[in-house]
Batch of 2 targets.
Target 1
Amino acid sequence: MKKNKFIDAVRSAGSEPLAAKDIAVLQVNMGYQCNMACSHCHVSAGPARTEAMDKSTVDAILQVLADNPIGTLDITGGAPEMNPLFPSLVNSARKMNNRVIARTNLTVFFEKGSEGFPEFYRDHEVELIASMPCYLEENVNATRGNGVYQKSIEALRRLNSLGYGDETGKLSLSLVYNPAGPFLAPAQCTLGADYKRELKARHGIVFNRLFAFTNMPIGRFRDALAKSGKIEAYEEMLASAFNPATLEKVMCRSLVSVGWDGKLYDCDFNQVLGIPVAADAPQYIRSFDLSALSRRSISVDDHCFGCTAGQGST
């Protein structure tokens, strides 16, 4: 049986095994189809992926939101906009006064049929978390493909013109940094100041907040690490940077992740790895039980060092 180093690290820090505290966020993965195939993508999303959430699962999610005081719907993918059911999910959740977050890659706005999403987001007051791995063109294109940087800049300008990212915060626009290689992100506050300065000076772009996320050693990023012979060194680096102070606020303690097929997970990373919620908790969105899921034990493995290394990544 494989030794679980993460559990040992938690115990060594004098902490109890991770357990949920509540459920403040329902995170929903609409499917793995995406208009891009980024080298750091933990779900290995791309144009050829066919996994997609169906209407019965969307309906079950909306019923859960109607029946439970969760409050926040966090929608991801792939590119969630590529699922035809995405607009109706957003619209229905907002009608129930749920806070809605959409994780977008920005370039999807240039795909046929997706051109109107910026205005759709504005009209429904959707909070946006947008992937922007760097403020330098060469670094973004190296990670995400040629021409992606310029499309991202154009998309951000359009969002700014609609009111996203200004200091009022009414239409929240956050950016996401991912390291370009097998190393930890710099301090989030320092890097955020760099992003704001550089994007404003170079392109006149404003945004509200930067998230600096560690690349998980799963999916396409793991494949790249294995190919370069760096996977063991990267995993050891994450483990050696374990920070017990991050355990209190790791996202899995206040979130449930819903897979495109309706299965329940502790996070989107566990979803990709096929690690479901604890066996004594409901396994599918159709059997959702807020009380049981709010007190579940969290399923962990060594990839969890990615969320607890250094400043944390939550």
Target 2
Amino acid sequence: MPVRVSPTDRVRGHIDELFARDRPLPEILEEVARLGAQLLMQAALEAEVTEFLGRDRYQRAAACEDARPGSRNGYREVTVKTTAGPVSLARPKLRGTSEKFASRLFGAHVTKTNALETLVIASFVRGLSVRDVEATLAEALGDQAAVSKSTVSVICQQIKADYEVWARRRLDGVALDYLFLDASFFRMHPGSPAEPVLAAWGITTDGKPAFIGLAPGTGESADAWHAFLTDLKDRGLASPPLVISDGAAGLITSIEQAYPKALRQRCLVHYADLGIMPISAVKPLVAAA
């Protein structure tokens, strides 16, 4: 009998299909955010059921010492509100259990789901600390809606594994015309200093957007950017003709060391923020003969 595709794997397939389409990245960002929220919440629901029953899908109760009576019995479609808009989830149904299953994360009185979305960012930047994740959920959803440590751990470990595979992938086949580099800062807790996440994306020689790299940094120092760009080079990313960045001295130095043959242009958005828009920044840059 063929194994049915789980709702979580189905969402992953939709994400893969979305990126496989020939559409500009800005056009799909909203849909990416919605699917990302859907994937995270669906994984949380299935992790809760696994913990409740004491066994994974298709795993026999006799093979698990702590298994409870009961089995999975399909799903019921529900819709929850998130910061990315309404999201449809497949809520698991159970039969033959000695007690009723109730999701602690999506119970009848839980209305806030944005904590799950911030959970991903907080987990990556803070090193996937289970204690930090529990504190984030408890603060946003209340103690009665907090998930258990084991459920949080399962979700975080899966997210971490997926990210590490993506972050180690080879980049030999990526040929860029333009490489954009910048950092975004996230404040994980009230009163705490904002922490940076370094990002690289670009436009390929075929005119398609490409998300190249993402990594937490200790700051926007030359050392942090040098390590980030060295990793991209070690994984096979060739020098692009043009690199676009802000005017941070540490970033500029790292670009010149990593890709000395590439031209560099100041980001027009940063020029606009400074109230400066030189003619040289608007004209396309061309290599000198």
